[in-house]
Amino acid sequence: MEKFLKDAMEIKETAVKNNRLFAESIPLIASENIMSPLAMEMLLTDFGHRYAEGLPHQRYYQGNQFVDEMEEKVTELGKKLFNAPQFDPRPISGTNANMGVIFGLTKPMEKICAPDLSGGGHISAAKFGALGFRGLDIVNYPFDEDTMTVDVDGARKVILETKPRVCLFGQSVFLFPAPLKELRDTFQEVGCKVWFDGAHVLGLIAGKKFQDPLREGADLITGSTHKTLPGPQHGVVIGNTDDKTWKNVQKGIFPGVLSNHHLNTMAALGITLAETLEFGEAYATKIIENAKTLAEELHNLGMDVFGEKLGFTQSHTVVADVKKFGGGKYVAEKLEKNNIILNKNLIPIDHNKNSQDPSGIRMGTQELTRIGFGKDDMKWVAQIMMKIIEGKIPEEKARAEIAEIKGRHDKIEYCFGNHKPYSYINIE
Fold it and tell me: Is the Cβ–Cβ distance between 12 and 395 less than 8 Å?
């Protein structure tokens, strides 16, 4: 009866250890966040056990009346938050949303323009990612290192020469807005569809602090919902396009790339959308302010931070070249040993370089902002990072200082009620 109880308890213990790690660490991963307790509660509901294939009132299962109510409410909130006529909350991740759009908009062998990985592009847009698996002919835009985004003149030339079916914009290293407005006439000239992967900046778009892709020429926005939008690990597609294109995209989502769409996380997403309607603008403002402060302080302390000419960043993300400190892998691992969690990252000089040993690191301020870190706190983060990197503080002392400072920030903000993060709760 209890033959495998020990195994089950070991799994629980790893969860306890993970909670403890992040309770005592500085989280700077640009693609992570924490949910509010109210959103987190949705993951524990009966929705997590049920199926609801299809769209509301067009299901293949019975017993979906409350699922339909919930999904319609989530869709309504999404349309309102993004000022969009079309919103589909069914994808179960950002990449799953991307795949739905790929199936809905393209056929194998068609051309698609997309950012290159060394220019911050997402892995799903690579030849070995979702675009490649669809059999698309991928053409990369030229990259401008000064603006850390697509080179406008170069992109215009590429689009006019190749006449792609789709132009994809959006990055994993997303410091500054993509040049949609600047290229809008070019899109119209070649008659392509414009798709914006907003996974990283979805919360900043919702907070009206980044760019407004649907008003700047994009037909579709995809995104994951757990980065600057502080919700569950889920996905969305947002549209401002013709009915035929939207129906094709919805078919690409179901039955194209998913069956059931994880109803408990959709409910958690709905809570997050409501909270973002209430608090999103203030949250986005603080995220960007904190990112600029972190970037400026790291720069002042001797780190080679990208984007200096344009103020380092206009998003949650900070990117730096750390070759002189041993490279991205070395720096990320050294910081991890001292409980500062970020990731190594390819940067523009890393053409054809092994992604496991890049020259850069990437940081994001959205999770620290969510638990109340401000500008002075971000300066401290930069200072202790540099002490660790330069070997000017013992590991034990660094970890103790980090745990002490982190312990002062144990409440989630920008949500309905300020609460202790579930990920930091001792579940022993």
Answer: no
Q: Give the residue carrying structure tokens 């947002």.
A: 238
| Sign of the torsion formed by the C-alpha atoms of 388, 394, 398 and 401 | negative
The CA distance from 118 to 242, in Å, is: 33
Q: Are 172 and 122 in contact (CB under 8 A)?
A: yes
Question: Residue 71: phi, psi to the nearest 5?
Answer: -65, -40
pLDDT tens per residue across span 99-146: 999 999 999 999 999 888 766 777 776 777 778 778 888 899 998 887
Asked if residue 351 has pLDDT above 80, the reply is: no
CA distance 195 to 174: 15
Last residue of a domain, one of 219, 251, 275: 275
Cα of first residue to Cα of last residue in the chain, in angstroms, is: 23
264 domain-assigned: yes
Q: Of 236, 259, 275, which one is at a domain's C-terminal end?
A: 275
Q: Would the pTM count as exceeding 0.85?
A: yes
What's the rounded Cα separation, in Å, for the pair 315 and 83?
20
One-letter-per-residue 3-state SS of 286-305: HHHHHHHHHHHHHHHCCCEE
Nearest CA among 143, 145, 134 for reference residue 110: 134
